[in-house]
Design brief:
Layout (H helix, E strand, L loop, with lengths): L1 E3 L34 H4 L3 H12 L2 H13 L7 E5 L7 H8 L4 E6 L2 H10 L6 E5 L12 E7 L8 H10 L1 E19 L6 H10 L8 H11 L3 E13 L2 H8 L1 H10 L5 H17 L4 E12 L2
Parallel strand pairs: 1-7, 2-3, 2-5, 3-4, 5-6
Antiparallel strand pairs: 6-8, 7-8
Helix pairs in contact: 7-10, 10-11
InterPro entries: Erg6_SMT_methyltransf, Methyltranfer_dom, SAM-dependent_MTases_sf
Pfam family, one: Methyltransf_31
Protein name: Methyltransferase domain-containing protein
Length: 301
């Protein structure tokens, strides 16, 4: 296990990126969580979601983590690889540059808006194909791919073990699967004691996706599948000392508001918490951390 938290890992973002802030897709426990990310297609401004993903992916820590996850695929020229939940295709050109013209790169996403954007961006690469699809039923024969990846997808999926099994199904013996996801419940803030309990409720109890702690449990889920061997884990502590970054890219402020709408805290408690957070920002003492995980394995079947 490798953990990174050094002076090179600070999340830095230009203030102009504040326009990329989007509201996370809240849900009740009874919602059809599998389709919540499709709300992008129904939103008034789908491009805002695309811009959010683009800007978040430009952060130094995310770039370093993605490079690691790409290495774990162990790609070579001529190989076939798919990015499940590819979004707007941020990683497809990188994959193509490794497998080159003799290889095949596929991107699949449930959002039509994301897929159309990715198609446009990849139109100059004839061996890259992007399409709409469901991660529970990937439309390829068994043993088709040399490598399969997904990033920050399983947190939105009701049955992540089924998706892992589907990824295994389409991967050749000896191939690789690499999964990256976040542990939202690992969020920590340098918070004053008088609002610690309110903060704990906001971080631990607010529901805005199917599996907030999925990153922490990725290794265990992959180890449960008997066809995955040589399971390896890479953990990175992301941190920022900017409240605007925590709000815009890590949904801190929105999670506080959701705690009110979900009946977990009162409006007064939210204001008390928010004032404490903003006071720390003014004093220069605000620190926010969250953990990101990549787990990889080899297919043996």
């Amino acid at each position: 296990m490798e953990i990174i938290n050094d002076n090179q890992s600070t999340l830095v973002v230009d203030n102009q990126c504040s326009s990329t802030q989007v509201t996370p897709i809240a849900m009740d426990h009874d919602d059809d969580k599998e389709t919540r990310w499709m709300a992008i297609d129904k939103s008034e401004c789908p491009n805002k979601f695309i811009q959010y993903v683009d800007e978040a992916s430009k952060q130094d820590q995310i770039i370093a983590h993605t490079r690691y996850s790409t290495r774990q695929l162990q790609l070579e020229p001529g190989m076939k690889v798919i990015d499940v939940g590819c979004g707007a295709g941020k990683d497809l050109s990188r994959l193509e540059s490794i497998v080159q013209g003799t290889g095949e790169v596929y991107g699949m996403d449930i959002s039509r808006e994301m897929v159309e954007c990715a198609k446009s961006r990849m139109s100059h690469l004839p061996n890259v194909q992007v399409f709409c699809g469901n991660a529970n039923s990937i439309p390829f024969d068994a043993n088709y791919f040399d490598a399969v990846r997904c990033e920050r997808l399983l947190q939105h999926i009701p049955q992540p073990d089924d998706v892992i099994a589907e990824m295994v199904r389409i991967t050749k013996r000896g191939g690789r699967i690499v999964i990256t996801d976040i542990d939202w419940t690992s969020s920590t803030i340098s918070i004053p004691k008088h609002v610690e309990q309110i903060n704990s409720i906001i971080i631990k109890d607010v529901v805005f996706n199917a599996h907030p702690a999925i990153g922490l449990h990725l290794k265990g889920r992959m180890k449960k599948n008997p066809q995955i061997t040589d399971v390896d884990i890479f953990a990175q502590c992301l941190y920022t000392d900017s409240l605007s970054v925590a709000d815009d890219f890590l949904w801190l402020g929105e999670r506080g508001k959701m705690a009110v709408t979900q009946g977990l805290i009162s409006e007064d408690e939210y204001m008390q918490w928010r004032e404490a957070v903003e006071q720390m920002e003014e004093e220069g003492s605000f620190v926010f951390t969250i953990n990101l995980f990549t787990v990889s394995g080899k297919i043996d079947k």
